[in-house]
Design brief:
Layout (H helix, E strand, L loop, with lengths): L1 E4 L5 H10 L5 E6 L4 E2 L5 H4 L7 E3 L5 E3 L1 H12 L5 H19 L3 H4 L4 H21 L12 H15 L8 H11 L2 H9 L3
Parallel strand pairs: 1-2
Antiparallel strand pairs: 1-4, 2-3, 4-5
Length: about 190
């Protein structure tokens, strides 16, 4: 499998899941401004959407979108929960994708300051909800699962974008716990972070 990624982008979550699960993964960095890969390929010819992540499968197929790739890699690595918990994990991934990740748009697009402030407040509000729901070490309780990787990336973005996370002790402890995981450390190192 080959993961097309940009350092620190949401594709980092997929990279973390593969590393945590011991899955062999070829990495190809994408310049999101020029839509060119590090080997000189036209990324839009690989993924017409033009953004990361994209995962080339062993059979030559392509998966895009974190919701699909996180579940796929999680299944392959044995990290996705079973039974009803699988659907709760997908629920978390969907929430992170649509309510938190998407809310960063104005911060990445250099929007006017009032729009940026509104985005920061919305992200903080959503993270306060996560704080209340986080009752164990990880989103699904006592065991790492794919939504944890996605939440970790969103928390890194908060730090970069000046979103105040003070007063959220569970999320702060979660971020520290994630930072200490071997697969997380490996993925960060491989992406030059």
């Amino acid at each position: 499998m080959k993961l097309y990624y940009a350092p620190g982008a949401c594709s980092l979550a997929d990279h973390i899941v593969a590393a945590e699960g011991g899955l062999p993964l070829e990495l190809e960095k994408v310049d999101l401004k020029t839509h060119t890969t590090e080997t000189g390929a036209d990324y839009k010819a690989i993924n017409p959407k033009g953004y990361v992540p994209a995962l080339t499968l062993d059979d030559g197929g392509l998966l895009t979108e974190n919701v699909a790739i996180l579940a796929y890699l999680g299944d392959k690595a044995g990290l996705m929960p079973g039974g009803i918990d699988r659907y709760h994990a997908l629920e978390w991934i969907g929430f992170l994708n649509s309510e938190i990740h998407k809310s960063f748009g104005p911060l990445f697009g250099k929007a006017p300051e009032p729009e940026e402030d509104k985005a920061r407040r919305k992200i903080r509000d959503r993270l306060e909800l996560v704080e209340k729901k986080l009752s164990g070490d990880y989103l699904m309780g006592g065991r790492f699962s794919p939504p944890d990787a996605y939440l970790f990336v969103m928390l890194r973005w908060c730090e970069k974008m000046g979103i105040d996370l003070s007063g959220l002790p569970r999320l702060s402890a979660f971020k520290d716990r994630m930072q200490a995981r071997p697969g997380v450390a490996r993925a960060l190192k491989e992406e030059g972070l």
